[in-house]
Write a structure and sequence with these properties.
The complex is a heterodimer of chains A (246) and B (54).
Chain A lengths: L3 H5 L3 H24 L10 H31 L2 H33 L7 H22 L3 H17 L1 H10 L20 H44 L11
Helix pairs in contact in A: 2-8, 3-4, 3-6, 3-8, 4-5, 4-6, 4-8, 5-6, 5-7
Chain B lengths: L6 H47 L1
Classes of the chains: A mainly alpha (246), B mainly alpha (54).
Chain lengths: 246, 54
């Protein structure tokens, strides 16, 4: 029997980590809001970009890692990969939803609309819908093994959209602006100070992702152990009762 | 409605979204932790009662 009460408390190291992350977040916000230069075209609205783009990149990483953990669960069958996949999926949904909300806040004053069915926006909306589906699927299946396998497939399907999402702004020059930072090293069309502020904000968003993951994984592990314990109790023969085998 | 909003209004809203989201997620984790603990305690009480009847 596990002692859930003692293990559920956030350990000191995690509280310190989250505290340091909070300080770094305040610093990142200060860089974006106070120290970043104004943009020639967007003026002060460029300060939204640091919040929006950093969260979007980490959201993509979270969805990608969900698929990796899901694939590892399909391959190895160990429960810990499923626990990691669920935690990362929650983060993926969280950051992707935040990307859409932040994108709408950025889009209205710069492009005069909250939303349009632009390729990149549509692909992001589909990704969010798939991540919602991930949790709907998990809620519908009681058997932990089957639940882990089916949801892993959903995560892989969601992650399959990521390369198209990354390239959508290049392929379809519609509403969403093209990339200013290319991952293939082909160039950066951004002021160096702005780039540094953006990278710092992305690093802090990454640290927040990691901190939330660590906390969520701890919870997930205890939930999994309690579920196993509950199932063991439910399937154990009742003492004093004869088991009739047919 | 939104045409009269200044650039700094939009910037403030965008950053407040992050603050609310991060704070909200931490509150959600705390709620989940408390719920897990309450469910576990309730289950143990039921199991103890069931063992007592058996």
């Amino acid at each position: 029997m596990i002692d859930a009460a003692a293990r559920l408390r956030r350990p000191l190291w995690l509280r310190v980590y989250l505290g340091v992350t909070l300080v770094l977040f305040v610093a990142a916000a200060a860089f974006g809001l106070l120290f970043s230069p104004r943009d020639v075209n967007q003026g002060d609205l460029i300060r939204i970009m640091y919040a929006h783009v950093s969260v979007a990149w980490i959201g993509f990483v979270a969805v990608g890692l969900t698929a990796v953990f899901g694939a590892l669960y399909l391959w190895r069958g160990k429960r810990r990969w499923d626990v990691l996949a669920v935690a990362s999926a929650e983060m993926g949904l969280f950051f992707a939803a935040l990307t859409i909300i932040g994108g709408m806040t950025y889009s209205r004053p710069t492009l005069n609309t909250f939303w349009t069915w632009d390729a990149k926006l549509t692909l992001t909306a589909i990704m969010v819908a798939l991540m919602v589906g991930y949790f709907v699927v998990r809620g519908l299946i009681d058997d932990p093994v089957r639940r882990g396998r089916v949801s892993a497939v959903v995560a892989i399907v969601a992650a399959a959209s990521l390369p198209f999402n990354y390239l959508a702004a290049e392929w379809f020059r519609t509403l969403h602006p093209a990339k200013s930072v290319a991952l293939d090293g082909s160039g950066v069309t951004m002021d160096p100070t702005m780039l540094r502020v953006l990278l710092f904000n992305t690093a802090v968003a990454g640290l927040i992702y990691l901190g939330f993951m660590l906390d969520r994984v701890r919870l997930g592990r205890i939930e999994a152990e309690l579920e196993d314990e509950r199932m063991a109790v439910a399937t154990a023969p009742t003492p004093g009762k004869e088991v009739v085998r047919v | 409605m939104f045409d009269g909003w200044t650039q700094w209004t939009w910037v403030t809203i965008a950053w407040l979204e992050l603050v609310l989201a991060y704070g909200g997620y931490l509150l959600y984790l705390n709620w989940r932790r408390r719920k897990l603990l309450a469910d576990d305690r309730a289950r143990r009480v039921i199991e103890r009662q069931a063992r007592g009847r058996a």
